[in-house]
Design brief:
2 copies of one chain form a homodimer.
Chain A: E1 5-9, H1 14-25, E2 30-34, H2 47-51, H3 72-79, E3 82-84, E4 87-93, E5 98-103, E6 109-113, E7 116-119, E8 123-125, E9 138-140, H4 144-156, E10 161-165, H5 169-180, E11 184-188, H6 200-212, E12 216-218, E13 223-229, E14 232-238, E15 243-245, E16 248-251, E17 255-257, H7 260-264, E18 275-276, E19 288-290, E20 295-298, E21 305-306, H8 311-327, E22 340-344, E23 347-353, H9 356-361, E24 366-374, E25 384-392, E26 398-405, H10 409-421, H11 426-430, H12 446-458, E27 464-465, H13 467-475, E28 481-484, H14 488-493, E29 494-495, E30 501-502, H15 505-508, E31 523-526, H16 531-542, E32 548-551, E33 563-564
Parallel strand pairs in A: 1-2, 1-7, 2-3, 7-19, 9-16, 10-11, 10-16, 11-12, 18-20, 27-32, 28-30, 28-31, 31-32
Antiparallel strand pairs in A: 4-5, 5-6, 8-17, 13-14, 14-15, 20-21, 22-23, 23-26, 24-25, 25-26, 29-33
Chain lengths: 566, 566
């Protein structure tokens, strides 16, 4: 048997993984990696941290953990892979099984034969069809050269005012990078919230934090026009007519699959514009596989196709593709649960599975719980976490989990991702055995505690009300009786100031005369995190009140303004 | 229906949870909590951090997150629970369903009737039957007053030399606390390693770190005698005859269930000396439940009974007991997978499930993989993690996972605990969708990467050899050909110095003449973490060598001495 030719198109994340893994599995194979950009195997998720000056050595984005740059000679020597940079693929001939390419620097053309082909052509940033989008100063962040450009602008010290168009993950990471670089930043977002993987009231907590860093956030607003003089950006005109002067606009309104080559040769394309692959990462052509940001994959919860352009999935998909090419379609890639996390200044924000709004869109009947509690005991320097758990009402199966805060979000979301992938219920998590020691977690881990809250709600022991609903009712002039059961000192320090009544939990049993004496009057209880709020509900119900609700997450999760000091 | 009487004996961890939860579930119940000690609801896992001076306010161990001390009046006012401290239970009358108790300060006696009783009597520290154990200066760490005593000794500045007897979790935490307090510390351990939940070679990495902090560790050695003068400890005589002078000895050789009361009234006691409970946390008396360190529970992997005295489990067990008392045995406590974690100076060490040695003792045929790799990308300030995964050979089911290092152990062990509880295989984890962003993890999370290594081993693509076996072979004079494939710079900085040959991976394909030309000669490859070691194995096998092994975890996981500098 002669050795097989494996050709991989694309050299960012999925491509290098597919190439290197193929060669390790089949040492006899001729593996060729064709990359249009001058760099290989870029840590593109690291661009915001390079731009923001977390580190200065550009090569760190391109190096192995021991500091070797992953260039053509590295791939040849260490991986046995024939990697060619600056090499654009111009055509695929499926019947002859060849790939035509051109060196974009020298103009040299070549034809590479393949037995198996892997498409890892990635994604391209969405460009809004807005006047002025081609002005100098309107920038996206997709390729290494975009990162170089933004870093250069930062180092020049000449950029003072920035508008970031799009309040998603990349937008927020770039926002932080540029604020840390001393720039004055505006974020413009079409929708009513940042970070769409979070539910509105959780996203508002992130927004509050971003605003506290001096950023101006314009939600429910879009860019009508990029304004310029002599071809240079001078400002941005928003949909509401206002003008924000700026020297730089970073457009980060998402990416779309780069499936041009696949389309051209008639491979099946899906509803999101991505290459359709089966569970083996094989396209509609049995000799062509695809992986990374150019494909559509399955959502493991809904079973539907989705588009999930994440660097970690690209690597896993590519590994599965290589396995199946060499071993014969024996490995299955099950899809995504949309796990993600990002740093937002002093907060982390993470999510896995479906948000409440997304789950409802998908037709699930859901129950949710919000839990605000510390990540560790107070004596170990606890920091708050605010989480929301979404479960299927019928079964208690956890569909999603979101967590934000200055505390240890990382472990929480990782645990939740495992739970969602495994189809665990709130009852499974309520008795989970997770590692505990004071430097690392609470005796009842925050994730478990959140499941406990949801169990209590599902059993009808706790009736919750969201802070958004409470706020709406207050604004509409139909506020319920709002009962703050914290201590006087806590009240002095910070309070809602919406007409609430303070009765500390410890005195509640002796202060029942201060409550509405109509036992069917609606009472909303809360405390710092609403654990005491829940105790108060139990006390009031034991004394006959029958319309008591706990405002979930307490004052910690309150995304609106609060009064501070006395 | 008259309101039921629920009596809980024990007020540390499980007791307060059982009492408060019962009252929340049944507002009409009379809930009484009887506690022998003067304190309630102590965060006993925090004692080492109090002793070590991480914080100075003793009340932080006894307070709610908002700083309210959980004393009798707190339990009365906030929880509706009649908590009585300094109250020792002297007898239980099962036929009359009463509990007799005495106030240990006033001598006042009382009889409390119960409909349901919950035993949360905790554990007592093992005391070695060694001459001199009663000397002043021989101390255990179990109760609040022990913590007070050790903190007082620390603050006095009078203790210079300490011997810690027992190198388990508490022993190591106290070791750190006392070293940080400026004391000279010896740790004496009967077995050949510290932290028995880790396999030997992983525990040795911890030991190496502890020793680097100036601690003297005596393994395979025990205390023959506590030496004293005028009733005061002056030193410790070890089993090997040596004498270690000291002012303080902390005995931490584990705990045994405090099941005296249960025994006295004829409840069923198990093989570990703990109270036998069913999956509802009910004892052999249907009106008596038990939870916390006094009970035996199931190991969720083996299905066998085990003793797992952990604070987090105590809380969960107590919650289940309360649920079943009030709601009628509807909630099941499934047991433990022995998840645990601890801080050891600049390292964290965690584990879940079975270690390799434990799994083999239990009769499992296992495969294992060791993985040393960073927790994050280098440009985000990566720190190393060294992990070992243990799986069932037949099925690939993950039986256990251990992780140590200065890196982010917490998330890794939590993920693994979820995997073990769910019966996930290495193949499930190989395609897991976990949250990724550079500040939090690698694109291929360390836990997933460890599963990948084990997949490669199970598929026969990678043949591993443990560093312990390599060392043994070297010491026995039958060393294989040892091939270091790192870069010359890395070699200069640190090397095994056991007669290895350096051929950087990038030059290996052109340096095959430097290998033993007998293709069946045993070759052991390694690098920093053994990813390149694995690549080297693949290269050599492609060129005909048929007895190549990768030393797992590379030089990062090497627990023995290394040569440093040139």
């Amino acid at each position: 048997m002669s050795s097989q030719n494996i050709v991989v198109i694309g050299g960012s994340a999925a491509g290098p993984k597919a190439a290197a893994r193929s060669k390790r599995l089949d040492a006899d194979a001729n593996v060729t990696l064709l990359q249009k950009a001058p760099e290989l195997s870029m840590a593109s998720c690291g661009y915001p941290y390079y731009i923001g000056g977390n580190f200065d050595e550009r090569n760190q984005l391109l190096s192995t953990p021991t500091g070797v740059v992953r260039d053509e000679s590295f791939f040849a020597a260490a991986k046995g892979v024939d990697a060619r940079v600056n090499t654009e693929v111009t055509a695929i001939d499926r019947s002859r099984k060849t790939v035509a390419c051109i060196n974009v620097l020298t103009g040299e053309k070549a034809t590479v034969p393949y037995d198996k082909l892997v498409l890892c052509t990635g994604a391209v940033p969405r460009r809004p069809p807005i006047p002025g989008v081609d002005l100098d100063g309107v920038q996206s962040l997709s390729e290494m050269r975009d990162a170089d450009k933004l870093r250069e602008l930062r180092d020049s010290g000449k950029v003072k005012d920035v508008v970031i168009v799009g309040g998603g993950l990349i937008g927020i990471e770039v926002c932080e990078a540029l604020v840390e670089s001393g720039m004055n930043v505006n974020v413009v977002e079409m929708l009513s919230q940042l970070l769409l993987f979070l539910d509105w009231e959780i996203a508002k907590l992130v927004e509050k934090h971003v605003v506290s860093k001096g950023v101006t956030v314009h939600t429910e607003n879009g860019v009508a026009e990029f304004l310029g003089e002599n071809g240079r950006l001078t400002g941005v005109k928003l949909n509401d007519g206002s003008v924000v002067p700026c020297d730089l606009a970073v457009v980060s309104i998402g990416v779309v699959p780069n499936a041009d080559l696949a389309k051209k040769v008639g491979l099946e394309i899906g509803g999101f514009g991505g290459i359709v692959v089966d569970e083996h990462m094989r396209t509609s052509d049995p000799d062509i596989y695809a992986a990374g940001d150019c494909v559509e994959i399955s959502n493991r919860i809904t079973g539907k196709k989705t588009y999930a352009p994440y660097g970690d999935l690209a690597n896993l998909e590519a590994r599965v593709a290589a396995d199946n090419i060499v071993l014969g379609d024996e490995v299955v890639f099950p899809g995504t649960v949309n796990s993600g996390i990002c740093k937002v200044f002093d907060l982390s924000a993470g999510s896995t599975g479906l948000s409440e709004s997304r789950a409802r869109q998908e037709g699930y009947e859901v129950v949710t719980a919000t839990n605000a509690s510390p990540d560790k005991p107070g004596f170990m320097g606890a920091k708050p976490l605010i989480s929301k758990m979404v479960a299927e009402a019928k079964t208690g199966r956890i569909l999603g989990f979101q967590c934000v805060g200055p505390g240890e979000v990382n472990r929480q979301v990782a645990e939740a991702a495992m739970a969602v992938m495994n189809g665990n219920t709130v009852h499974d998590i309520g008795v989970a055995d997770l590692p505990y020691a004071p430097p690392f977690s609470l005796a009842i881990d925050h994730f478990i505690a959140t499941a406990h809250v949801l169990q209590n709600k599902m059993a009808g022991r706790m009736t919750g009300i969201s802070n958004a609903e409470v706020k709406e009712r207050i604004d509409a002039g139909s506020a319920p009786f709002i009962l703050d059961v914290r201590a006087p000192g806590e009240f002095k320090e910070m309070r809602l100031d919406v007409g609430e009544t303070l009765i500390p939990l410890g005195t509640l049993r002796n202060s029942l005369d201060k409550l509405p004496q109509d036992k069917s009057a609606e009472v909303v209880t809360f405390c710092k995190i609403s654990m005491r709020g829940y105790e108060a509900q139990r006390v009031l119900e034991a004394h006959g009140w029958n319309n008591v609700k706990v405002m979930e997450g307490g004052i910690m999760a309150w995304p609106f303004a609060v009064e501070q000091g006395c």
